[in-house]
Amino acid sequence: MTKEDEADGVLGKLNFNSGAALVCIALGIAILALIPYQVEEPPVFFGQSSSGISPKLFPRIAAVGLIVTGIAYLITSLRMNEPNGLRELPTSAYVNLAVALAAMIAYVALLLPLGYALSSALVAISISIYYGSRSFLGIATVGIGAPFAIYYLFTRVLSVSLPPLPWG
Hints:
Blueprint: H1 3-13, H2 16-38, E1 44-45, E2 48-49, H3 57-79, H4 91-114, H5 116-130, H6 136-157
Antiparallel strand pairs: 1-2
C-alpha cells in the first residue's frame, strides 16, 4: 500500500461528521485568535484589577473546549463507516436551509433599527409561519412571548443592562 492509497483512504472516510468536527476546530481557533481583540480587561484601580479573574478566562475555556471536542469528534468520525447523507437530501431541505439563513441575516440587519424585542418577534413569527405553524396561540407565544420573557430574564433576573422597551 502506497502513501497515496492511504491518503485516498482518509479522504474517502470524510463525511458530514468530519466536516462538523473541522468547523468546531476552526471556530475554536478563531475564538482563541480573536480574544485579545474582542475582550477588554477591566480598569485597574490602585494597581489592582477590579475583578478577581480575567474576563478572557471563560472565552479561552470555551475555545479550548471546542478545539478538544472537535479533535475527538474528528478522530471518531474517521472511524465511522457511514454514507454521505447530504447527497440524498431533497431540494426542499436546501431551500429550508436557505430560508433559515436568510432569516438570520435579516435578524442581524433588523437588530439595530428595530431593537431586540421587535426584531426577535418579527423573525420568530415569520419562521413559524414559513415552517407551517398555523396555531395563533403557538405563534404568539413563541413570536411575542419568548423575546419579552428573555428580555425580562436578562434585565431583571440577571441584571444585564439592555436598551429600554419597546425597541430594546
